[in-house]
Amino acid sequence: MKIAISVESTNDLSKELLSKYDIKVIPYQFVLGNDLYKDGEITTEEIFNYVDTNGVLPKTNALNEFEYTEYFESLLTEYDAIVHISLSSGLTSSTQNAINASKNVKNTFVIDSLSLSTGIGLLAIYARELADAGEDAKTIAEKVNERVSKLQVSFVIERLDYLFKGGRCNSLQFFGANLLKLRPRIIVKDGKMSADKKYRGNMEKVVSKYCEETLYEFNTPDFDKVFITYTTATPEMVGAAKKALEDAGFKNIYETHAGCTIASHCGGNTLGILYFNDGKAE
User: Fold this and answer.
1) Which residues, 6+ apart, have CB-to-CB distance to 42 below 8 Å?
2) Which residue among 18, 83, 147, 220 is the one 20 to 30 A from 129 at the CA level?
3) Helices in the chain by DSSP H: which ranges?
4) Minimal CA–CA distance to 28: which of 124, 98, 114, 81?
5) DSSP state of 11
6) Of 179, 185, 189, which Cα lies nearest the Cα of 198?
7) Distance, CA of 239 to CA of 213 (rounded, Å)
8) Burial state string for 64-89 with b = 16 or more CB within 10 A and e = fewer than 16
9) Are the C-beta atoms of 25 and 103 separated by less than 8 Å?
10) In angstroms, what CA-CA distances link 238 with 70, 155, 246?
């Protein structure tokens, strides 16, 4: 059986990894000013320039049930079944639209990732590995669902103005954090984003401390693979993350850029490490 592994553009995998693992993508759309774009048609730097100039965030559009139905049906002209891994239902109505569409398209299974960015990418790669091992679509969906709760997905953010503009922090929090130059850790839990730690200092030191504390807290990693995913980052920030992950013992460290949908919510110099936290305890 030929199985399509599918995601939305919020997965943030590189083109090389999407091709290597044969992962199909349906793009989100967003409005910038008066123009409608598909995720990936413009760069994150162009989005940041627009926000800096106009003080307004892009508006992302949820994918509707009809768009998913058309997309799933087109995949089934080439594949026998589909396993689609969607952006967290805690962040978008698209997930329910995908689930509704799947009910009318044969052999289509939709998984609520309760995650975002390369957290979705980790699930998609795992799904492809299961498909390549000969598992059927239903079994793949069940096994991927079992690993959703095992994801460690977090980021550290340099500036809060994007979260403030997007309504994810209030004016008092925004003012206080800027005054004290605080850099929050944003963690994805139960499908939603929240700030749970705060750091101070330059971003290279912040990234080192963030990685140290995250690896200590989520301390049973699957060491096979880990992602360093960022909107923009200095070489020093990326180097600090790589050193922490190499020292921890990860075998495959992938560096990827966050796409437009993720970047429009977090702003520049946002960096995260993402991995499965279901390895064996030592």
Assistant:
1) 32, 260
2) 220
3) 15-20, 44-54, 65-75, 94-102, 118-132, 137-148, 161-165, 171-180, 203-217, 235-248, 260-266
4) 98
5) G
6) 185
7) 17
8) ebebbbebbeebeeebebbbbbbbbb
9) no
10) 39, 13, 12
The torsion defined by the Cα of 35, 36, 40 and 46, in degrees rounded to 10, comes to 20
Rounded Cα–Cα distance for residues 93 and 255 (Å): 29
Residue 55, helix vs strand vs coil: coil
Digitized pLDDT (tens) for each residue of the chain, 282 residues in all: 899 999 999 999 999 999 999 999 999 888 888 888 888 787 888 888 887 788 777 777 889 999 999 999 999 999 999 999 999 999 889 999 999 999 999 999 999 999 999 999 999 999 999 999 999 999 999 999 999 999 999 999 887 665 545 444 433 343 344 444 678 898 999 998 888 888 988 999 999 999 999 999 999 999 999 999 999 999 999 999 999 999 999 999 999 998 877 777 777 889 999 999 999 865
Residue carrying the six token digits 């998913």: 68
Which residue is it, tokens 């839990």? 189
Instruction: Mark 150-160 as b/e (b = at least 16 C-beta within 10 Å).
Output: bbbbbbbbbbb
pTM greater than 0.90 (yes/no):
yes
CA angle 6, 10, 11 (to 5 degrees): 55
